[in-house]
Amino acid sequence: MEQFFDPKSIAVIGANDRKGSIGAALIDNLIQGGYGGAVIPVNPMHDTVRGLQSYRAITEVQPPPEMAIIATPIAIAPEIVRQCVRAGTQGVIIISAGGKELGEEGAFIEEQIHGAAEGSGMRIIGPNCMGVIRPAKNLNATFAGDMPTKGSLAVISQSGAICAAILDRAATENMGFSHFVSVGSMLDVDFGDLIDHLGNDGSVMAILLYMENLTNPRKFMSAARAVSRIKPIIVLKAGKSGVGARAASTHIGAMAGEDAVYDAAFKRAGIVRVPSLARLFDCAELMAKQPRPAGTRLAIITNGGGPGVMAVDALAEYGLEPAPLSDEITTRLGEILPPYWSRGNPIDILGNATVERYTSALELCLASKEFDGILIIMVPQDLTAPEEVAASLVKLARRKRVPVFASWMGGKRIAEAVDILNQANIPTYETPERAVRAFLYMVEYTRNLELLSQAPPKLPELYFNRDQVFRTIYECFEQETELLSEIQSKEVLAAYGIPVNPTRLAVSADEAVALASEMEMPAAMKLVSPDISHKSDAGGVQLDLRNEEDIRQAFGRIMIGARAHNPEARVTGVSLQPFIAGADFELLLGSKTDDNFGPVLCFGSGGVYAELLDDKALGLPPLNRLLARRMMEDTRIMPLLAGNRNTQPADLEKLEELLVRLSQLVIDFPEIVEMDINPVLIKNGAPCAVDARIRIRRNEEQTNNLNNCYLVISPYPQHLERHDLTDMQKPLFIRPIKPEDAPLFTELFNSLTPTSIYYRFFSVVKTLSPEILARFTQVDYDREISFVALDDDEEGSERMLGVANIVGEPDGRRGEFSVLIGDLWQGKGIGAKLLLQCLEIAQERGMEIVWGTVLAENRHMLALGKKLGFTVKQSEDPSEYKLTIDLKTAKL
Q: Which of 228-232, 631-635, 638-642, 646-650 has the lowest mean pLDDT?
């Protein structure tokens, strides 16, 4: 990506001498940034550009430009791209509009552009974009106006208009940027590519996204999950739509709309979502200018009671309150404030507040460790000049350790003061509510980091009857039906250990009576029809049937109701099952395959009013117990499930396990495109699925794909597990690392000598923080190859003997390896087996180079590297060696 952000030479193709043209504006901006000597005007029409020589084809330019900007009509862009490939250009920005946004003709042109560049290694931004800006390099490769201030915010936007709006607002608010990228149609370079690049750039402290759609959700999720651990990503996602939900055939389909799925994806990736452009501005300003808060404890200093109440109300919307004041703080504030101050938070310093009163209150709050942020509110009044207050606050706020931000309410009278604050990097907001919400978005990111660092509890070994599900699904395919009956759906669920109510099919009233005599009464009877999805709407659910007469009458009512609801509907018969009376809760579980994100799981309140209640949480597979619990906690019914007054609580661990099993089912069988389990009844704490509906679709490509490309998050690669022996013939179990391995990894670390720790971490590390532990155990299987060796000889307990991994760079061509073996197990061949396993997988994935840095005194690792075919060379630092292996030629 550096070819776009630090090019040594730039060709502007389509430049001409017409004032106001895009090409002319591009050249003007580049020359103003000091790129005059590097800019090569190229005109396909062989005209003269501002008195400079121009070229008919870019291939005539020597040496070839590192980056080219195409500002021609898009119809000739494919040929220009071919010329750029032949010339050896590394990156192309296509400003031209008229691609797929205009329909089939434009989409065809984009296909031609893609075909012209395919396989060349050249990257393309656009088409239909504004270009890129990198203030630190004085690079403005856009047709926008002035260069923005240098800063630490990176912006990626699909909309050029939004880019222009952000740039204009930034100039007013004194916001600076590290990178500004308009991606347009994302023919090639997309959000995932840029997030990866910016995540590795130390000048970027936060990333802002304006998104309309994704072209590669899996790449996006992989990049975002990695980068959000080290810097915040804030997204404004536009384009909400309910069209797809209205066409769904089940409760899950109707409730898992497109925008809700994006919400679930952002949450899983640790991304903070804002609902409007105004809030994106507000959040960006605070992110750009202030440190991140450690928690929610907000101090509010105000000269007006009303604005203070507005700030408190804004906190209450999120279930929060202002930070309580300790006795010590209250006493010290009482010494500097009038006797009739508020004696609480908000700290009301009264309408006649002086400069000294503001500064004293702020100084005390800054010195205290009781607050995670400080909001200063001012309403104009005649006794104090706002600009004097602003100037005094600026001097104090330079010593900040927590975010300090302001809401200066008014217009003309406070304009000068607001400018003073902005120039000093103190964010200002027109209302207290906007200030509080911006602060809470920063808090949300802090909480995301905490959640991402939590280690999930381990589940007992789960067993699944995949063969049974395979047979059921392919029997339906042979019968050319895509909708499984209730009985077939329950067979699938039972094969994956999900408790179901035993159910039998009857095709006549007599058969229903006979079956009922064989089961425990009372009974429940339901319509079985592939053409009627919601049985209750057709009177197709009859409950609490206690005798033969009830059974016959229920059968008759169901048949009449089905004919009245849909005279053309095919009716297979009715299902009979024991009736579970007096359930404590009704839940809904299920899944839906989203066009962008693949299978999406759902948990929430169930029953016939599920859609009306709209109490649900969505999640992406794979799930573990921790992720399952978070889904449950995102619903309104969760406090009731946990136990409320006289209600018996649900077995929450069983519900977690049920969600994990459901997650594995949709991972293993991409043919399942929709699954509705409603209701799941909770009685005496235990769950039981009493109704279910599954819709399937044949997809051979997905079924035969071991890489699970239909999922946006790579699941645990169970097929890579294997058993082996050490050099001393001790049994080993080698498998990919799991998030649940955190306790085992901690035990391994605690067993290491200080020397072994230093060899691995190149520094003295005494304990593993939750963040470091998560970094080692919660890996993205798409970009990291990490294997552990477990003692396979112990019964009833596990012990980790060693771990090896290769962390791939964003382009997938290079990766860095590391190995850590417990002291007692060194020299027994475990490290060689683990690293060799990692190298073989890397080679299969097409990785070209694997490298690592080893301390000179770590002789065991140097010997292992030579044994496996690494080239060993001393680094510039004589205490280190660099080990490199070329996987293109290596014979492992």
A: 646-650
Contacts of 500 (CB under 8 A, 6+ apart): 490, 493, 494, 688, 689, 690, 692
Tell me how far apart the alpha carbons of residues 191 and 556 are, in angstroms, rounded to a whole number: 58
pLDDT tens string 138-192: 999 998 878 888 989 999 999 888 888 888 888 877 788 999 999 999 999 999 9
Under a CB-based contact definition with an 8 Å cutoff, are residues 819 and 831 in contact? yes
State how far the Cα of 297 lies from the Cα of 374, in Å rounded to an integer: 9
Residue 318 identity (one-letter amino acid): Y
Res 36 pLDDT > 90: no
- Please, what is the angle between helix 625-633 and helix 652-668, to 10°? 110
- CB distance 809 to 764 below 8 Å: no
Q: Categorize the per-residue pLDDT at 511 as very low, low, confident or very high, splitting at 50, 70 and 90.
A: very high
C-alpha dihedral, 312 to 313 to 319 to 322, nearest 10°: 0
Residue 315 burial (CB count, 10 A): 22
Q: Measure the CA–CA gap between 75 and 872, rounded to whole angstroms.
A: 52
Bridge partners, residue 384, by sequence? 381
Residue 873: CB partners within 8 Å, gap ≥ 6? 881, 882, 884
Buried b (16+ CB within 10 A) or exposed e, 248-277: bebbbbbbbbbebbbbbbbbbbbbbbbeee
Q: Residue 504: CB partners within 8 Å, gap ≥ 6?
A: 487, 515, 519, 575, 576, 577
**Contact 677/590 with Cβ under 8 angstroms?**
yes
760 half-sphere exposure, CB direction, 13 A CA radius = 22
CB–CB of 791/748 below 8 Å?
Answer: no
The span from the CA of 219 to the CA of 196, in Å, is: 9
How many distinct helices (H) and strands (E) make up the chain? 31, 36
Q: Residue 209 in 3-state DSSP? A: strand
